[in-house]
Amino acid sequence: MENVRDPRQHINEEPRDDLNDTAMGFFAMFGFMFVVFTVAVVIKFIID
C-alpha cells in the first residue's frame, strides 16, 4: 500500500447500517431518559 491516504485502497471491512445505528441510538437514549424521568417523578411523589 503505497499511498495510505487513498480511500480507494481501503476496503470497508465491516459495512454499517447508518439508519439502523441512528435509530437504535435514538431509542436507547429515549429509553434511558424515560427511566430517568420515571424515577424523578416517583421520587417527587415520595417527597411530597
Automatic annotation (TrEMBL):
Pfam families: YqzM. Keywords: Membrane, Transmembrane, Transmembrane helix. The lineage of its organism: Bacteria, Bacillati, Bacillota, Bacilli, Bacillales. This is YqzM family protein. It comes from the Bacteria. The chain crosses the membrane at residues 23-47. InterPro entries: YqzM.
